[in-house]
Amino acid sequence: MRFRSILKFAVRSLNRNKMRSFLTMLGVIIGVAAVIAMLAIGQGARNAINRQIAALGSNVILITPGAFSQRGVHAEAGTTSHLNESDIAAMKKRCGSIGFCSPMVRAGEQIKFADQNWRTSVWGVYEEYLDIRDWTLAEGLPFSDADEHGATKVCIIGKTIVDNLFQNGENPIGQSIRIRNLPFKVIGVLAQKGQNAVGQDQDDVILAPFSTVQKKILGIAFAQSLIASATAAETIEEGRQEINQVLTDLRPGSTGDGTDFTIRTQTDIGNAAEQTSKTMSILLASIACASLLVGGIGIMNIMLVSVTERTREIGIRLAVGARGKDVLLQFLVEALVMSFTGGIIGIVLGAVLSSVISKTQGWPVAVSPFSVSLGFFFSAAIGIFFGWYPARKAAALKPIDALRYE
């Protein structure tokens, strides 16, 4: 029996019970749609995280101080004050794999302009910080080495600051804003970056010369952290090792990274985020696959019922010359038609559902060719796996017994 004839018989048989066939496919439709939607959410989240990590800058290496320890009492990481500008000078001199580096200090301050105010983070950094973060200016100029050496009260502000302080449409360049009642001249506006990997608004920031924030706002003599960038992605690990060696040499008795200081790279952050995203995608896909399993069981149940209802028909076909493998193929094709049809509808429904979720919830989604291929694969696998036993049972019937069946 030709495959085209078998396919025609299968479609005709399913059309006899349209509602039953649709309800049987419904489990596959829901399962495939769930797989497509869940994978789209997972892939979209992964893409968003990768973009946010890339927005951190070029091959970033972050150095933070270690934990304070006294008489067996250990505080949290970052409570020691062991980092300073001399570390930056040594890194520039001895670390060949490092392109740019800068100390950092941060102050949370209420910013004022005219009758507006806004609370934000004021970061004290070198001009090289912009190169490390791949951060350009939308307008204006960066502060200079002269501003750093002279602790000049100038600053560069983010887009969020512009939106909240200059609500009357004033040009922020050249304006004076007050930080802790000190006047700072705005000399530049940062290009918009959006949220980072942990959902923080990167544009809600003010950058000022390191010495200005360190001395005139915080009144401290150390750096809260250091930031650097490797010359290339391939030299990030080499840069980490060079920094570790330099900082260890500058601290007698130090055992290196993890004690007096901690070094984290952009690769570390990316790997951690990627692993979290993969785990979530697998979890979501596993839940969706449970729906597919239920749909497959539904196909097997209906096919077994169909074999019982059509026992005499099977007997007649066997009696007039049909072979067992023809009967097997016929019922297997019926199961495949249901699962494939359900799979196609499910893929379309999953794509539509992903789009609706993205628009209503604002979540990033991405329907990938892999998820579509996976939907087709699961559809075929369910049709074959759950259709095989009923088809084999139909093919194993003896013609005389089938013809006697009432």
Describe the structure.
This protein is of the alpha+beta class and 406 residues long. The chain folds into two domains: 3-52 and 274-404, no CATH class; 83-250, no CATH class. Helix content is 55%, strand content 19%. The chain has helices at 3-16, 18-54, 85-94, 128-132, 145-149, 159-165, 210-218, 236-249, 266-309, 311-319, 324-361, 369-395, 399-404; strands spanning 60-65, 67-70, 73-77, 98-113, 116-125, 137-140, 154-157, 176-179, 182-190, 205-209, 225-230, 261-265. A six-stranded mixed barrel has the order 4-5-10-7-9-8. β2 (67-70) and β3 form a beta hairpin. It is elongated, with a radius of gyration of 33 Å. The two termini are 27 Å apart.
Strand and helix map with partners:
Blueprint lengths: L2 H14 L1 H37 L5 E6 L1 E4 L2 E5 L7 H10 L3 E16 L2 E10 L2 H5 L4 E4 L4 H5 L4 E4 L1 H7 L10 E4 L2 E9 L14 E5 H9 L6 E6 L5 H14 L11 E5 H44 L1 H9 L4 H38 L7 H27 L3 H6 L2
Parallel strand pairs: 5-10, 7-9
Antiparallel strand pairs: 1-11, 1-12, 2-3, 4-5, 4-8, 4-11, 6-9, 7-10, 8-9
From the spread of the alpha carbons, the general shape counts as elongated
Kindly state the mean pLDDT as a whole number? 80
Main structural class: alpha+beta
Question: Low-confidence runs (pLDDT<50, min 5 residues)?
Answer: 68-79
Proportion of beta-strand residues:
15-25%
Number of strands: 12
- Cα gyration radius (Å): 33 Å
User: Reading side by side through the largest sheet, how are the strands ordered?
Assistant: 4-5-10-7-9-8
Instruction: State the end-to-end CA separation.
Output: 27 Å
